[in-house]
Design goal:
Radius of gyration: 15 Å
Helix content: 40-55%
Number of strands: 4
Strand content: 25-35%
Mean pLDDT: 86
Structural class: alpha/beta
Distance between the termini: 15 Å
Number of helices: 3
Shape: globular
Length: about 130
C-alpha cells in the first residue's frame, strides 16, 4: 500500500488527536495512526524577524510513531494574509454558508497564493 500523505492548513500531532480542535484533525490523525505516512502543513507558529530560530519556510520534521509531521512556520506578513486574511476571512465563511462574514481583499488572495507556492516547494522534496 502507498503511504498516506495529508496536506492541511494546520498539522495536529496524531498522538494527541483527542485534544485536536475539529473533526477533520481527529479523522486524519486516526487514519495516519493506522497506516503511517506524512502530515504536512503550517506549524501554527508565527516567526518575527530577528527572533526566529529557523527562517520562515524552513521545514521542521518530527516523528510521531509511524507518522512524519512536517511543518513550516510563517512570518507575520504571510500569517496575516494567508491564515488570518484569506483562510479565516474568505474560505471559512464561504464554506460554512456565512457569506455575510466574508471579507474579500486582493492582497490577502495574493498572500494566500504566495504561501501555497512556498508550501508546495517545501513539500515536493518530501514526496
Amino acid at each position: 500500500m502507498s503511504r498516506l500523505v495529508v496536506i492541511s492548513n494546520r498539522v495536529a500531532d496524531p498522538r494527541r488527536a483527542a485534544a485536536a480542535a475539529g473533526g477533520l484533525a481527529v479523522a486524519m490523525g486516526d487514519a495516519l495512526r493506522q497506516t503511517g505516512g506524512l502530515w504536512f502543513g503550517w506549524s501554527g507558529a508565527v516567526t518575527d524577524d530577528g527572533a526566529q530560530a529557523a527562517p520562515a519556510g524552513h521545514v521542521h520534521r518530527t516523528q510521531a510513531g509511524n507518522v512524519t509531521l512536517a511543518t513550516v512556520d510563517l512570518d507575520r506578513a504571510d500569517h496575516d494574509s494567508y491564515y488570518a486574511g484569506y483562510s479565516n476571512g474568505v474560505l471559512w465563511p464561504v464554506f460554512h454558508g456565512r457569506l455575510d462574514l466574508a471579507s474579500f481583499d486582493t492582497g490577502h488572495a495574493a498572500g494566500y497564493r504566495r504561501v501555497n507556492q512556498l508550501l508546495a516547494r517545501r513539500l515536493l522534496p518530501l514526496l
